[in-house]
Amino acid sequence: MTRIKSAVAFGALLPTALCLPQNAPTDLKGHGKRYDMPPAEERAQAVVDAFRTAWDGYYTYAFPNDELKPVSNSFSNSRNQWGASAVDALSTALVMQQKDIVNQIIEYIPTINYFQTPTEVSLFETTIRYLGGMLAGYDFLSGPLADLADNKTNVDALLTQSQNLANALSYAFDTPSGVPYNNLDFNNRSNDGGVNGLATVGTLVLEWVRLSDLTGNTTYASLTEKAESYLLNPSPPSSEPWPGLLGMDISPINGSFLDAHGGWIGGADSFYEYLIKMYVYDPDRYSTYKDRWVLAADSTIAHLTSHPAPRPDLTWVAMYDGQNLSLVSQHLACFDGGNFILGGQVLRKQEYIDYGLELVNGCHETYIATATGIGPEVFGWDSADVPADQAAFFNKSGFYIRNANYQLRPEVIESFYYAYRATGDTKYQQWAWDAFLAINATTRVGSGYSSIENVNVEGGGGFTDFQESFWFAEVLKYSYLIHAPEAEWQVSKGGNNAWVFNTEAHPFKVFSGSS
Ligand SMILES: *[C@@H]1O[C@H](CO)[C@@H](O)[C@H](O)[C@H]1NC(C)=O
Ligand SMILES: *[C@@H]1O[C@H](CO)[C@@H](O)[C@H](O)[C@H]1NC(C)=O
Ligand SMILES: *[C@@H]1O[C@H](CO)[C@@H](O)[C@H](O)[C@H]1NC(C)=O
Ligand SMILES: *[C@@H]1O[C@H](CO)[C@@H](O)[C@H](O)[C@H]1NC(C)=O
Ligand SMILES: *[C@@H]1O[C@H](CO)[C@@H](O)[C@H](O)[C@H]1NC(C)=O
Ligand SMILES: *[C@@H]1O[C@H](CO)[C@@H](O)[C@H](O)[C@H]1NC(C)=O
Ligand SMILES: *[C@@H]1O[C@H](CO)[C@@H](O)[C@H](O)[C@H]1NC(C)=O
């Protein structure tokens, strides 16, 4: 997940009429194409080829800036000008064993000055992309992939730079409650003074705890565990409409929640994801987190499960405001199937796995219904709210499109990956292969890959000229791993995971007692 993973404003999702796609789909031309699957080795290699294409474009026209603009062969700096795409690409280059790229990146990382940036810093985005990317790089290169580093000095620097970055960020937690501010200005050590969000507060603890465990400096863990304590014991009670399901706005002044709306959506999403992932990381220290995940999961199954009227065979998870449901979901939310599957494996509860597989199927349907074979950013299924020009589409597909763009997001393929790892059913490899080919066919442009305007017109309706850093970190990693050979970092079938993926798909070694 990610992206303005958490900056998606809930309010903006509510009034359907204000939120129609610019080019509302009027046709019924579902893609639903099933491609021939070559052998796994060839599928994995095709994803490596896409990774190298995207990297070459970035390295030629953008490095060491944050992102490639592939249409204009130029660059942008949306993530503080520290080379976001390079740091985000590292753990994918590692699992793909692309030694030349690994060394290009680890030679660069020691040169970053994390104490300086011209632009506002997001504590959350910086943690999941930069800190997560460097820690995963360190875990791989000081462990099973040590042979890929030409120079050990650059490996040690990954941990030093992680500490430098966390030290630069840590003043964010200096608030009356210990709930951090998210938006920071390093130039005068100020913050935006605003409220923080559920995902932005609740998606720090895995990275900062890993950093403490690797360095012995327990402050990183303490800061984020303190912030998380307000999410594990939410107040006031009205901010928890059902057990475990929370509102999204939190005051750094007193740690109180200020609302009761939410779901498994952008802005809330990875808080729920990390409750179970912390338990995967260390079941001894984080069993309370697991208990809160179980409450949220059970409440979701009981209260948020929703089937569209024309397609009762499909399942999506609704959003809520208090106990009122809103029949809207997002590409971002499609990580939910994978997260239920992970929880079911780890807790050995088939009910969660089965529910997760239903959600995976629902998100797959959003892909195969469109003209490109790629699912939309935001979709709804409220029969009373269907835009007239999408009525036929809704009758057939069970949803209508509220925001038609595709921002190179990973969540649907991420959940295919968990589904495949849990079941071994090659259907999920087929779905991931079809999705990868559709994305490769539609978003490949100029020197790389670009976000597109409209998933429901052939060709994607135009390019935004932007290659997200999480294209490297997430989409290409999950697209690759689902076809790749067994390895200790692959999600395990039986729930005994040696590695756990952060929300940006950076794998960390699980806690083993020492580090
Ligand atoms: C390894 O990297 C360090 C720091 O970048 C550099 O000073 C050193 O010369 C390098 N060693 C080799 C053998 O290239
Ligand atoms: C431990 O981390 C904290 C928080 O960033 C930092 O202030 C402190 O200097 C670190 N301690 C050491 C010994 O590096
Ligand atoms: C810090 O700098 C930013 C940008 O220059 C400015 O908007 C903000 O008001 C400053 N904050 C403080 C507390 O000085
Ligand atoms: C907590 O602080 C917020 C402002 O950030 C305020 O609106 C709210 O009333 C406070 N809640 C309590 C219980 O003090
Ligand atoms: C829930 O819906 C009821 C009935 O429409 C309405 O009175 C109430 O204000 C709504 N609650 C919220 C939190 O939106
Ligand atoms: C969609 O289905 C409804 C209910 O079956 C029907 O009344 C309506 O005519 C259908 N609309 C289109 C455009 O097919
Ligand atoms: C991906 O797209 C490129 C450019 O259109 C094409 O050359 C390549 O064959 C595609 N990959 C696959 C596996 O179809």
TrEMBL record:
<keyword id="KW-0326">Glycosidase</keyword>
<keyword id="KW-0732">Signal</keyword>
<feature type="active site" description="Proton donor">
    <location>
        <position position="125"/>
    </location>
</feature>
<dbReference type="GO" id="GO:0004571">
    <property type="term" value="F:mannosyl-oligosaccharide 1,2-alpha-mannosidase activity"/>
</dbReference>
<dbReference type="InterPro" id="IPR050749">
    <property type="entry name" value="Glycosyl_Hydrolase_47"/>
</dbReference>
<feature type="disulfide bond">
    <location>
        <begin position="334"/>
        <end position="363"/>
    </location>
</feature>
<keyword id="KW-1015">Disulfide bond</keyword>
<feature type="active site" description="Proton donor">
    <location>
        <position position="377"/>
    </location>
</feature>
<keyword id="KW-0479">Metal-binding</keyword>
<dbReference type="InterPro" id="IPR036026">
    <property type="entry name" value="Seven-hairpin_glycosidases"/>
</dbReference>
<feature type="active site">
    <location>
        <position position="269"/>
    </location>
</feature>
<keyword id="KW-0378">Hydrolase</keyword>
<dbReference type="GO" id="GO:0005783">
    <property type="term" value="C:endoplasmic reticulum"/>
</dbReference>
<dbReference type="Pfam" id="PF01532">
    <property type="entry name" value="Glyco_hydro_47"/>
</dbReference>
<feature type="signal peptide">
    <location>
        <begin position="1"/>
        <end position="19"/>
    </location>
</feature>
<dbReference type="GO" id="GO:0005975">
    <property type="term" value="P:carbohydrate metabolic process"/>
</dbReference>
<dbReference type="GO" id="GO:0016020">
    <property type="term" value="C:membrane"/>
</dbReference>
<feature type="binding site">
    <location>
        <position position="503"/>
    </location>
    <ligand>
        <name>Ca(2+)</name>
    </ligand>
</feature>
<dbReference type="InterPro" id="IPR012341">
    <property type="entry name" value="6hp_glycosidase-like_sf"/>
</dbReference>
<dbReference type="GO" id="GO:0005509">
    <property type="term" value="F:calcium ion binding"/>
</dbReference>
<dbReference type="InterPro" id="IPR001382">
    <property type="entry name" value="Glyco_hydro_47"/>
</dbReference>
<protein>
    <recommendedName>
        <fullName>alpha-1,2-Mannosidase</fullName>
        <ecNumber>3.2.1.-</ecNumber>
    </recommendedName>
</protein>
<keyword id="KW-0325">Glycoprotein</keyword>
<dbReference type="GO" id="GO:0036503">
    <property type="term" value="P:ERAD pathway"/>
</dbReference>
<comment type="pathway">
    <text>Protein modification; protein glycosylation.</text>
</comment>
<feature type="active site">
    <location>
        <position position="411"/>
    </location>
</feature>
<comment type="similarity">
    <text>Belongs to the glycosyl hydrolase 47 family.</text>
</comment>
<keyword id="KW-0106">Calcium</keyword>
